[in-house]
Structure formats: C-alpha cells, structure tokens
Amino acid sequence: xxxxxxxxxxxxGQVLLLGDAGDDRQRERELINNLxxxxxxxxxxxxxxxxxxxxLIQATGTPFVMLDRVDDAQQISAIRVDERAAAFQAxxxxxxxxxxxxxxxxxxxxxxxTQDRLNGWRDALxxxxxxxxxxxxxxxxxxxxxxxxxxxxxxxxxxxxxxFTTNELQALGCLRAMAEHxxxxxxxxxxxxxxxxxxxxxxxxxxxxxxxxxxAMAKTAIEMLKNWDGKPTIREFDFSLQIGESxxxxxxxxx
Length: 255
Hints:
The protein has 255 residues and is α/β, with parallel strands linked by helices. It has two domains: 107 residues, Rossmann fold (3-Layer(aba) Sandwich); 136 residues, Rossmann fold (3-Layer(aba) Sandwich), CATH 3.40.50. The chain is 40% helix and 15% strand. It has ten helices and ten strands. Strands 5-4-6-7-8-10 form a six-stranded mixed sheet, sandwiched between helices. The protein has a two-stranded parallel ribbon with strand order 1-2. It has a two-stranded parallel sheet with strand order 3-9. Helix 1 crosses helix 9 and helix 4 runs parallel beside helix 5. It is elongated.
C-alpha cells in the first residue's frame, strides 16, 4: 500500500512522508504528534491497534483518512475491503480442497482487522460444519518473524492439513519455519494468505492469496484528502482470490 500511495501522491504533485510505528503504540502517538507539528496537509493512517488516536488528529483540524478497519460509530473517513468476507473466501477455498483441519495465524487480537479475519475463518469452518479449534489459533505480529515464531509453535503439536495466514509476511515466515522441519507447501500443509502483493507470485511456491486493489485504493485515498470537507466517507473495495501453488491448485487450475 505504501508504494501505491507514494506513486499516487507524486502523480498529484505531493510528497508522502512515511512513518512506521513498528507495532508500538507509544511510538505511533509520537509519530502523529511530529507530523501534526509539521503542519502536514493530511494524514493517511493505519493504527497499531483498535484504539487509533482519532481525537488527537481531529483536534488540529487536519484532514485524515484511515486505511484500515475502523469502528463505524467513530464517524470518520476510511477506505477498506470486507476483510471478514475475504477471510471467509480464503478459508472456504481450503475447505473446497477437502481440508478439514485448518489452522490460522492471525495478527494481534486487539486489532479490529484481526478480529474480522479471525471471524471470517470461523464463519467458513462453522458453515461447513467443521470444528473450530482454539488451539489452532496463533496470534502474532504481522511480520515475517511473527509468522515464523507462530509456525514454530504450531509445529510443536499435531500438524493441521491447511493454514490461513492473515498477511503475506506471516506466510513467508511460516514457509521458513516449515523448511527447517523439512516440510513444504502444499505437500505437507496447504497454505493461503491474506493481503498478498506481487511478491506472492514470485515466491516458491507461489502463494495463493487474497489481493486488495491497492492502486485503486491509493488513488481514492489521495482524492479523499484533496477533496476533504470534514464529512465522514467510507469507501469499500472488492477483493480477489489470486490462485497460486501453495494451496494445492495445479498449474492447469491456475491458468
């Protein structure tokens, strides 16, 4: 998303300053304060948890658009996809492959997008009449190390048939952990992830992933800032399932 936003900002004669809080809530507040003190023209904002610093930004009158799931009661502008529905479709794809024991590596449980993705996984299992096993829920950061550590924990117990990771970086970390145990996807474990990028296609195996229309989302986010009038606007985008090799689909199926 950051690269798409940079391209769109540049195309509109703007400069994008990027701040990364690294899942640290205190650092997030400091970054926001720093940007506000610089009197930036607007903020594009993804919070590290479900308690974004909305009032801090609103107090300055600075235009801002959330790039993430937010509480609808907050009456703020945001762009998003239906992450619960996306997680449902990803999990359902694994079920259609005949898998019944499906684990999930998700993000921090206090994040709204984690809850949406986790609930989508649950919905798919329950609709198929499958057991939701809490011991196969592994919460971690949305990072490669997080995925690696969660996978190592998962591999200490009975191996599920399939795994849904709630972002691409977690999937990459998981594949590293699997390799250390001489396991591969999809031979030993079918794998699907959320929020994949072009990198998913060049991994070995290529990752089956839920893709968001990042270019369209970035274009809309920049337009919302440029046309800011203070009225809350929610723009929801469609997602798509990009079929790769990691879930077990054959080359013929992918083409």
